[in-house]
Write a structure and sequence with these properties.
- By secondary structure, this protein is α/β, with parallel strands linked by helices.
- It has a single domain (2-229), classed as Vaccinia Virus protein VP39 (Rossmann fold, 3-Layer(aba) Sandwich), CATH 3.40.50.
- It contains 9 helices and 10 strands.
- The chain has helices at residues 2-13, 17-22, 49-52, 57-61, 63-70, 89-96, 109-121, 159-169, 198-205; strands at 34-35, 38-39, 77-81, 101-106, 127-131, 144-150, 170-182, 195-196, 210-216, 222-229.
- The strands form 2 sheets. Strands 3, 4, 5, 6, 7, 8, 9 and 10 form an 8-stranded mixed beta sheet that branches. It has a two-stranded antiparallel sheet with strand order 1-2.
- Strand 3, helix 6 and strand 4 form a beta-alpha-beta unit.
- The chain is globular, with a radius of gyration of 16 Å.
- The protein starts with a helix and ends with a strand.
- The model is unreliable at 1-25 (pLDDT under 50).
């Protein structure tokens, strides 16, 4: 069932290119299909949003353990990159409290509409939806304590542009956190292009100005890797 659901999501993603291009007001260079030997996966189309809040997700990914490792503090500003319909966004918003803020970035306006509806229903007011582009999340410079990318970095069609923008947005000692399905584990029932190995992650982030400062290996299916700017 998992592979069937994911196949539907990936097929829907093939329809999303027009939405992704329309989301960016800037001149978008050609999208990469391969980066440093890795196939870049299609962005999940908003039609697949129900998969993000599937009943089995907490059991499969242990999002509570992941969020605990982030050590979120009240008053922080956190970016949920590729926020989708807000599965992690709303939990983070409660942790940062009324003095904190969640910058929820997605390149599909339909996803942000779903997020707004979920936040309204939950009476959460410290979430700011941001329509990003393929090359720029449109985050204010030096404004973010932590950028969280859950199963999204491997879909960046312009990884170097995005990593440069993320570095610019981080505050001193700010962190980029990648959560990616483990390519090293063949038992993780996720399509290969939606997995990454630790070796590949380091191969890509190190030359783009990030250094690994911490990691957690206790999630069921995913790597959890913490990075800071290396300069």
């Amino acid at each position: 069932m998992m592979r069937l659901l994911q196949s539907i999501v990936v097929l829907a993603g093939l329809l999303s290119m027009a939405n992704r291009v329309a989301a960016g007001a800037d001149d978008v260079p050609p999208a990469l299909k391969v980066y440093m030997g890795r196939e870049i996966a299609q962005t999940m189309h908003f039609a697949g949003a129900p998969w993000l809040v599937r009943e089995s997700r907490e059991r499969e990914e242990d999002g509570a353990a992941m969020i605990k490792q982030l050590k979120v503090q009240p008053g922080q500003t956190i970016c949920d990159m590729g926020c989708g319909n807000g599965y992690h966004t709303l939990k983070l918003a409660k942790l940062v409290g009324p003095q904190g803020k969640i910058l929820a970035v997605d390149i599909q306006p339909e996803m942000l509409t779903l997020l707004r509806e979920a936040a309204k229903q939950a009476e959460i007011t410290n979430v700011k939806p941001i329509l990003g582009s393929l090359t720029d999340p449109h985050l204010p410079a030096g404004s973010v304590d932590l950028v969280l990318c859950v199963d999204v970095y491997h879909e960046f069609s312009h990884p170097e542009h995005m990593l440069r923008a993320i570095r610019k947005a981080l505050r001193p000692k700010g962190r980029l956190v990648l959560v990616e399905f483990r390519e090293e584990d063949e038992n993780v029932p996720i399509r290969p292009e939606h997995k990454m190995s630790k070796q590949q992650v380091l191969k890509e982030l190190t030359p783009n100005g990030f250094k690994l400062v911490e990691q957690f290996d206790g999630l069921p299916w995913q790597h959890l890797m913490f990075f800071e700017p290396s300069e």
